[in-house]
Amino acid sequence: MEEKVTKLVEWLQKQVKEAGLNGAIVGISGGIDSAVVAHLIKRAFPENSLGLIMPCKSNPKDQEDALKVVGSCGIDYITIDLTETHHALFSQIESKIKEKNQWNEKAARMGDANTRARLRMTTLYAVANNFGYMVVGTDNAAEWHTGYFTKYGDGGVDLVPLIHFTKGEVRELAKVLGVPNEIIHKAPSAGLWEGQTDEKEMGTTYDMIDKYLKGEEIPDEDRQIIEQMHKRSEHKRRLAAAPPKF
Questions:
Q1: Residue 76, strand partner residues
Q2: Percent of the chain, pLDDT > 70?
Q3: Mean pLDDT over all residues of the chain?
Q4: Angle (nearest 5°) at CA 34 between 21 and 160
Q5: Cα separation of 198 and 206, whole Å?
Q6: Are the beta carbons of 132 and 91 closer than 8 angstroms?
Q7: How far apart are CA 122 and CA 118, in angstroms?
Q8: Which of 99, 182, 187, 231 has a Cα-to-Cα distance from 204 of 20 to 30 A?
Q9: Whether the Cβ atoms of residue 73 and residue 39 lie closer than 8 Å to each other
Q10: 189 confidence band (pLDDT: 50, 70, 90)
Q11: Rounded to the nearest 5°, which phi and psi values hold at 151?
Q12: Residue 108, class by beta-carbon neighbours within 10 Å (0-12 exposed, 13-18 middle, 19+ buried)?
């Protein structure tokens, strides 16, 4: 893993240099994936890396954990609270659709959550533009394969250094990089709503997804869930579809 850390750091440096930019930025959520990326970009760009903490109707514990990540790697950071911005936008969307009597309450929770993810992406790019930085994503192999990310939200980034690493391998990277133990062992959550965890929402575990990706045997129920998620999310892993040239 030490060797892989070195290669990831060199790859990040190469990508930024080839883009003619100055450094890298990551949104720090308080979870393990963004913690690993924060440590990596701090190593790659000691003077030109930035972490963005963006609470948005969030659990205060997540912000505390994000600050622990900042402390563990020494990265410069900015906190931008998006709660009021999100409320202003989403409440207007809700109001206008309700005027047409077409509001879908069942879809509202996911729409709310995805809007938060896309606001964070917009904020990351606005700040990145100011500094001339590339936006570095945090999706790992399990999330990428299952589509467990918001299209044009946390999936809207320039670089995805963890995309070939299983969740278990991300934990190993975290140990090598010096991510705090409590972050490493924290239950993975996108923080979409109170009590939400990734595994509860997916209906399977990262351990099962990791085994599936490594070609190991897993129960049929888990395999079917993983394959269905992969099929449903295929559009997320592609550029916007275009028709053939007529």
A1: 50
A2: 97
A3: 94
A4: 50
A5: 9
A6: no
A7: 6
A8: 182
A9: yes
A10: low
A11: -60, 130
A12: middle
How would you list the strands of the sheet with 76-79, edge to edge? 76-79, 49-53, 23-27, 133-135
Mind listing the pLDDT tens digit for each residue in 229-246?
Answer: 999 999 999 988 888 898
Given a contact cutoff of 8 angstroms between Cβ atoms, the answer to whether 127 and 15 are in contact is no
Residue with structure tokens 């990734």? 198
* For the chain, counts of helices (H) and of strands (E): 11, 4
The token pair at 142 is 């399990």
4-37 residue pLDDT tens? 999 999 999 999 999 999 999 999 999 999 999 9
Q: 62 is written with which tokens?
A: 């997540």
Estimate to the nearest angstrom the gap between the alpha carbon of 5 and the chain centroid.
Answer: 19
Q: What is the DSSP string of 155-199?
A: T--SB-TTTT--HHHHHHHHHHHT--HHHHTSPP----STT--HH
- pTM value is 0.93
Instruction: For the chain, give the percent of residues with pLDDT over 90.
Output: 89
Bridge-based pairing of strands 76-79 and 49-53 is parallel
Q: Kindly tell me the burial class for residue 181, based on how many C-beta atoms sit within 10 Å of its own C-beta (0-12, 13-18, 19 or more).
A: exposed
Rounded mean pLDDT, 141-166? 96
As given in the structure block, the two tokens for residue 82 are 């998006």
